[in-house]
Amino acid sequence: LVSGNAKVSGNAQVSGDAWVSGDAKVSGNAEVYGNAKVFDNAKVYGKAQVYGSACVYGDALVYGDALVYGNAKVFGNAQVYGDALVSGKAKVFDNAKVSGTAEVYGDAQVYGTAKVSGDALVYGNAEVYGNAEVFGKAEVSGNAEVFGDARKRT
User: Fold this and answer.
1) pTM higher than 0.85, yes or no?
2) Which residues make Cβ contacts (< 8 Å) with residue 121, sequence separation at least 6?
3) Any residues with CB less than 8 A from the CB of 115 and at least 6 apart, and which?
4) Cα–Cα distances in angstroms (integers) from residue 55 to residues 38, 43, 50, 86, 130, in the given order
């Protein structure tokens, strides 16, 4: 379902019970399917995929070959791009960025102006926030928190 001022262009596809509404845009070769929702001013483009019951909203951007699925949420001014993956019940919001081949999953949260990149993994109930950066092959898991101006890599 595409409603409101939402636009689907190029070879982009919206299928199943997925919906795109508000001023959202899905373009390029992007796909939104299953029960996924893209709304407000969010944009999904490139070869990105949003599926399952995932939601992308606010002014969030999902692009490149990024995958957002499960019950994951990407919102605010957050960006998920490259080959990044956000899944499970994970949340990426505020001005956070997840890129490279990084994965955020489980109940993990990345927010503030935090950045997760490279081959980093953030999972479990972990939180990365503030101006923190997690990169390289770093793993943040369990109930761990990385925040402030912290930088974690391996």
Assistant:
1) yes
2) 102, 103, 105, 138, 139, 140, 141
3) 96, 97, 98, 99, 132, 133, 134, 135
4) 6, 12, 8, 11, 23
Return the amino acid letter for 22.
Answer: G
Tell me the C-alpha distance between 85 and 69, whole Å: 8
**146 by DSSP, 3-state: which?**
strand
Instruction: Give CA angle at 147 (143, 151), nearest 5°.
Output: 105
List, run by run, the mean pLDDT of 10-residue segments along the chain (154 residues). Answer: 93 97 98 98 98 98 98 98 98 98 98 98 98 96 93 82
d(CA 7, CA 76): 19
